[in-house]
Amino acid sequence: MPTARERSDTLLIHADRGPGDDRALAPPIHASVTYAAGDAREFAEMATRARHPRFYARYGNPTHERAARLVAQLEGAETALLTASGMGAISAVLLGLLGAGDRAVAQTSHYMGTTQLFTELLPRFGVQVELVDQADTAALVAAIGRGARLVMVETPSNPTMTLTDLRTVAEAARAAGAVSVADNTFACPLNQQPLAHGIDLVVHSATKYLGGHHDLIAGVVAGSEALVERIWRGTIALGSTLGAFDAWLLLRGLRTLSLRVARANENALAVARHLEAHPAIEAVHYPGLESHPQHALARAQMSGFGGVLSVRVRGDYARTERFVSRLRLFTQAVSLGGIESLAVHAAAMVAGTLDDAQMRAAGIAPNLVRLACGIEAAEDLLADLDQALAA
Ligand SMILES: *Cc1c(COP(=O)(O)O)cnc(C)c1O
């Protein structure tokens, strides 16, 4: 097995292989729901409900274990847990660690499902929630200092690729005795390792970069053995278990993560620079651009700037809609982090759920478009954007 010093490219190919493997290079899919015990004493040990990959498949299985080991290594975590979706990971963390009377701090701008957990679900169970502007580090620190049990951050986040200062949040959480959690989906561990900045737990929608092919819904929680064990106890009761075949697909997707992410990073930077100079574009939001208001923070806490950016088209809602509809290589579809480039007209996406004032509060201008770059050739993506803007 490679040492911790080996590069992530190598870890992704080898870190899950062990002496127990048979001679197959491709890992097996462990479809079995249940596992035989050798004798009564072993059965009693298996049934103690400690985390065990060979007991009953809702508790985990050997295919999960291999994919989880890869993500744990990439994040620099002791261990990781797979879940049936990114929301399955986030809900397991929040429901596993928070209880009635606890205070939780989160951002005003989170993934929509996460916002729903903080504003609708957790308050019903007696958790007090304070939402803070992620770019206002002093306000975040102050909110954590008011007795928080848990703080959740997401960086970069939708829709304007705003960052949260991971190190400062982690220090404030430590001082307050709060658990800090970072959603690392947009950056992915090759561009940003929140645990290295002192954050306690990382969650992922593995549906995005980790899976990488728009063919799989999965989630990951990574952190210390003690915290992940507590969260795992929650997942076996909540039932957000990933299927064995999907764990295998995730493992297969992970093998090429470093190649895909390197290309997506390059493509996003090329698109950001190109559109920043384009007369039909009003603004570009990308942490890798010198013009991003938090570019210095991006350089300090990210090693790459990711494949996602957003732009404001010069013009109104209708003009923006025409631009998105005319794109040929960028497909108009939600999600990100896969091999295909995708575009989302942000205002169109929330038109059914937010009114104009709520849209403005969420930073969603009528001309805002999110571009998630895939792994196509940059020249072709630029040409596609140019033809759609020219029309
Ligand atoms: C997609 C996404 C989620 C939710 O993940 P699912 O796999 O769809 O459940 C959570 N956080 C972020 C940042 C996401 O992009």
Task: Explain the overall architecture.
By secondary structure, this protein is of the alpha/beta class. The chain has 15 helices and twelve strands. It folds into two domains: 4-254, Aspartate Aminotransferase, domain 2 (3-Layer(aba) Sandwich); 258-390, Aspartate Aminotransferase, domain 1 (Alpha-Beta Complex). Helices cover 41% and strands 15% of the residues. The strands form two sheets. A seven-stranded mixed sheet has the order 1-7-6-5-4-2-3, with helices on both faces. Strands 8-9-12-11-10 form a five-stranded mixed sheet. The mean pLDDT is 94. Residues 85-87, 111, 113, 154, 183, 185-186, 205, 207-208, 217, 219 line the site of pyridoxal-5'-phosphate (PLP). Pyridoxal-5'-phosphate binds at residues 85-87, 111, 113, 154, 183, 185-186, 205, 207-208, 217, 219.
